[in-house]
Design brief:
- With 153 residues, this protein is mainly alpha-helical.
- It has six helices and two strands.
- A two-stranded antiparallel ribbon has the order 1-2.
- It is elongated, with a radius of gyration of 18 Å.
- The N terminus is likely disordered.
């Protein structure tokens, strides 16, 4: 029986996760700058200042997700770097968001707090799954196209 070296199902999960991260990031900031009340957990200047500190970091996350996605699809070894960058950016954003939310009791603030909890949970999931995949498949990712060589099992 012929098999591919890369786990195609998990690879697809990572690709879908990267696309979802990009789309959610775009949607969040689009809503934040046009209909802030839909997603704001608080309506204070301090909260707005905190949230307004994130667009550049989220832009970085989106860029490295896109670079990871493209390099994975092209089976280029640099995919490992971009996946580690994306997972690390997600982990950093998770930590910043979680700490602020706990310190300011955001999770207990009704629907906005629940929405924020979902964002924090998704960010943690994203970071863990991307970093785990990147590290666990580093040899295959670094092999690039040569990982596609079929072998008999």
């Amino acid at each position: 029986m012929l098999t591919l070296c890369l786990d195609a199902d998990m690879r697809k999960v990572i690709e879908v996760t990267l696309v979802a991260a990009i789309l959610l990031d775009l949607a969040y900031w689009g809503i934040w700058f046009t209909q802030r009340d839909w997603i704001a957990s608080e309506h204070t200047e301090a909260y707005y200042a905190f949230e307004n500190a994130f667009p550049l970091a989220d832009l970085w996350l989106g860029v490295v997700c896109l670079l990871a996605l493209v390099s994975m699809r092209q089976r280029r070894p640099i995919a490992l770097l971009w996946l580690i960058c994306a997972g690390s950016a997600g982990a950093y954003l998770f930590g910043m968001d979680l700490l602020y939310d706990i310190q300011h009791g955001i999770f207990a603030k009704g629907a906005g707090g629940a929405f924020e909890a979902v964002i924090v949970a998704l960010t943690a999931y994203f970071a863990v799954i991307v970093l785990t995949y990147a590290w666990g498949h580093r040899g295959e990712l670094l092999a690039g196209d040569s990982a596609l060589i079929l072998h008999r099992t």
